[in-house]
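TOKENISED FOLD:
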Amino acid sequence: MNFYKTTRNILLAGALGLSIFSTGAASAAQYKIDRAHSTIEFAVSHFGYGIVKGRFNEFSGEFGFGGDADVTKIEIDMESIDSNWAARDKHLRNDDFFNVADFPKATFISTGMTTAGDNITLTGDLTIRDVTKSIDIAVTKIGEGKDRRGNEIMGFKGEFSINRSEYNVSMNLGPAVEKVTITMYFDGVKM
């Protein structure tokens, strides 16, 4: 009887080990951002008495974690800024802010990643208005699995803050409006 319990426990431990290995192997792949299920949002103080939120409607990219797949590339169409107020969006597109006529894209390219338990920090170069600075993005894995069509999907949330003036988005609105928080929700389809 002990032989059967011991054999069963060994088989269960082996199956658990294989499932952990399989999860790690799946995580090493590269994923294309699924635009239909992803968002890039921003939030900025409205002079200290409120918060203005918005999003970018057009972006593309890919991400990967583990092994040789530690590459994340994101390109944002700055013309697609949407703060839910057309007059403000027009102003954000002009030279006071993003100057989309001369700088139509913002980009992020990862340079490294560190993990500590469930905490992931993605480091990379963010370029806005032709100014590139290294940033750290706090990343949380939301989940992974197969969708109903059999595609392997992985989802993440990333969040970071920047100071507008460091990227020459510098219309002087005072210190209360300097910090911008960007939150990204990406579902990716394994490539």
In short: The two ends are 48 Å apart (CA to CA). The longest helix spans residues 2-27. The helical segments are 2-27, 86-93.
